[in-house]
Amino acid sequence: MNRSSRYLKFGAVALGTSLVLAAACTDRSATPQAQHRMPDMPMPTRGSPHPVETAGTNTAVGAPLPGMPPLLDPNDLYAADRPGNLSDAVKNDPFRVYVPNNGSDTVSVIDPTTYKVIDTVRVPHSPEHVVPSWDLRTLWVNSDQGNAVTPIDPATGKFGDPVPVDDPYNLYFTPDGKYAVVMAEAAHQIVFRDPHTMAPVKTIDVTCDGVNHADFSADGRYLIASCEFSGELLKVDVANQKIIGQQRLPGENPMPQDVKVSPDGKTWYVADMQSSGLWVLDGDTFGKPTFLPTGQGAHGLYISRDSTKMYITNRGEGSVSVLDFATGKLTAKWQIPGGGSPDMGGLSPDGTVLWLSGRYNSVVYALSTDDGHLIAKIPVGSEPHGLCVWPQPGRYSLGHTGILR
Q1: Which of 53, 71, 85, 359 could pair with 393 in a Cys bridge, judged by C-beta atoms 3.0 to 4.6 Å apart?
Q2: Domains of the chain with bracketed CATH
Q3: What is the tens place of the pLDDT at every residue in 132-183?
């Protein structure tokens, strides 16, 4: 399949406890409905059938990445993200939730104080995520199939002209602010770019399928990325911009999604939508992970404002699980009334509301982080995906829908 084609899609029919899969090839020239990703289903491997396993190799580096702001607390990567701790750069930005509607080619803008959509803006085809820049002064709408990123000025909420970028499924920024990192999923590439102009600087070709989500180590020296369709993890040396580790997750059909490192920087969590839980591993050694079940279709991972908990969206069953970092155990599961498909999102600046897209229900959920009750269900466009709550506490952004430190 060439670069102009999309991944194979799978249709699924449940028969009792079994699942029958039927494949059909999808091309970007097909109808808009046929072009959308179907990430709920396992995908065939298109990379190397026998990737080099480098799990177990210790590549930990003590000194932080040069140019990276020092941690406020060496025991808490998220110490800058306390409730309402807005930097001078963002404190006057209007409070908004920006929702990319993958199936509608629009971004819905929600006023979180009224829980109402106040604007709908058309963007290039297939918007996936709204991503804060490292310096917090631009929000980038990633349109992977539209091959563009669209800037939003968070001070005014105004959308700018799209910037051509090939296959920007997801977007991150190195901890020193030197590079934007584009996860070019369909192209099998991780592309380091200028963080302002988006001009390419260096491209890393990858042998895994569906590279898309990532997080950075406490020292900023490496990132770990998930490869959704081949069930693999990559470890990338940030300074030297090269792959230094690759492993396939255990299980029959792993489908890793969001990646998040614990506040103390010692433990990494990878949501697995097909295995319905979290893989837990040591990122420094990149050893074999253990598994923690959370719920069907585990997808997005979000750290509480006090750094004590992590919220896990279980997209396949309409719930959110709560993990306690101190014990490593689940302490609650919040069910969305009537079910749903909680996907990606983020926390309100004060941490009291968890905002999530309802991927297959054309809604956005606002959940109380006190007890998980549903505050609001807001209709938006088709297939809402990686929404961004803005502004957020923190000094700089590592990307995605808001990984601030």
Answers
A1: 85
A2: 79-390 (2.130.10.10)
A3: 999 999 999 999 999 999 999 999 999 999 999 999 999 999 999 999 999 9
